[in-house]
Structures are given as C-alpha cells and as structure tokens.
TrEMBL record:
Broad enzyme group: hydrolase
Cross-referenced Pfam families: UDG
Coiled coil: none
One Gene Ontology term of the molecular function aspect: DNA binding
Record InterPro entries: MUG/TDG (IPR015637), Uracil-DNA_glycosylase-like (IPR005122), Uracil-DNA_glycosylase-like_sf (IPR036895)
Biological processes annotated in GO: base-excision repair, AP site formation; epigenetic regulation of gene expression
Keywords of the record: Activator, Chromatin regulator, DNA damage, DNA repair, Glycosidase, Hydrolase, Isopeptide bond, Transcription, Transcription regulation, Ubl conjugation
Protein name: G/U mismatch-specific DNA glycosylase
Enzyme Commission identifier(s): 3.2.2.28
Domain Uracil-DNA glycosylase-like: 16-177
Annotated signal peptide: none
C-alpha cells in the first residue's frame, strides 16, 4: 500500500508506453493517475475497471494485473495516454495540454501505425481532437490508415457505465479489430 506522500511524489511522473509497431489496438488513456505514476503501470488504481473489462470483452484470455501490462504486446495490444504526466485528477489538465497531447498522439500513431486507436474517455477525445460531436464508438477520423474508436472511460468515477456495458462496447471494438485486414 502506498502512502499519501508516495502518491503525491508521483505527480508529473511519465510512465512508459506499452507500444510496438503494427498493433491491432492501441488503447489510449486520458493520463496516468498518481497510482500509475507511483507504480509505473497503466490503469493501476484498484477501482479502475480497465483490466477486468479488457478480459470480459475477450481481448485477453485472463484478467491481467497492471504489473503484467507488457503481456498486452503478445495479444497485439498496447497502451499510451493523451497526456503523459501523472495527476491526481484529469481536471488538472487544461484544454491546451489536451490539444498538445492530441498532436503528440497523432505523431505516435503515424509512427507505430496500429490498426485501431481506442481512446478511453470520449470527453478527452473530444478535447484532444477538437471534435465536440464525438460519441462512443467508431469515429469518422482516421490517422493515416489507423481507425479511431472512442470507448467509455474505465475509471470507477464513470458511473454511467457498468463493467458489463463497458465490456460490451470494448467487445464491439475487438470484433471490428478482428475483422480488419492487416497489412
């Protein structure tokens, strides 16, 4: 268990992406929380539903722990963030930092060319890509040949979605990714 001091010390920490060329899906969080900053693992807060939802949706054969994040690469999956620095809350990031994150994310996607970019958090997607009308699901926008999908944010604070309804939406993406022709 981390102390409040250890969590605060993780503020502004940048955790490495889990990424490689040619992924099927690159999941993109809003930004790391303090628990992720302190541990170096994406979606590390115990109440975050990313890892259970990823498994329930069929992306992984078992529920991975945040410390096993690098195993995602063997399934053709990866993780990055719109904004790289760890904060206590996403509202600590202003619109300009989100837009800059969107520009950096675009360059990263152009470099690594995943089949799908899945942004977990439609509000972050709207701000980062200046697309106020975006809804959950596949987007019109592409980045090079990469298609874009907005997914519900798996944070425990997102009460609009249950783990089950999130898993159903993530499974829609998984099916689209499986159907996509690879280069």
């Amino acid at each position: 268990m981390l102390t409040p001091q250890e969590l605060q010390a993780a503020r502004d920490t940048v955790i490495p992406d889990v990424i490689a060329g040619g992924l099927s899906v690159l999941f993109c969080g809003i930004n790391p929380g303090l628990m992720s900053g302190a541990t170096g693992h994406h979606f590390a807060r115990p109440g975050n539903r990313f890892w259970p939802v990823l498994h329930r949706s069929g992306f992984t054969p078992r529920q991975l722990k945040p410390s096993e994040q690098n195993e995602l690469l063997s399934y053709g999956l990866g993780i990055t963030n719109v904004v790289a620095r760890a904060t206590a809350r996403a509202d600590e990031i202003d619109a300009e930092e989100f837009r800059e994150g969107g520009r950096l994310l675009t360059a990263k996607v152009e470099r690594f060319r995943p089949t799908w970019l899945a942004v977990v958090g439609v509000t972050a997607y709207r701000t980062a890509f200046d697309d106020r009308k975006a809804r959950i699901g596949p987007q019109e926008r592409t980045i090079g040949t990469t298609r874009v999908w907005a997914l519900p944010n798996p944070s425990g604070l997102n009460a609009h979605w249950t783990a089950q309804t999130m898993a159903e939406e993530y499974a829609r993406l998984r099916l689209a990714a499986q159907a996509a022709p690879s280069d």
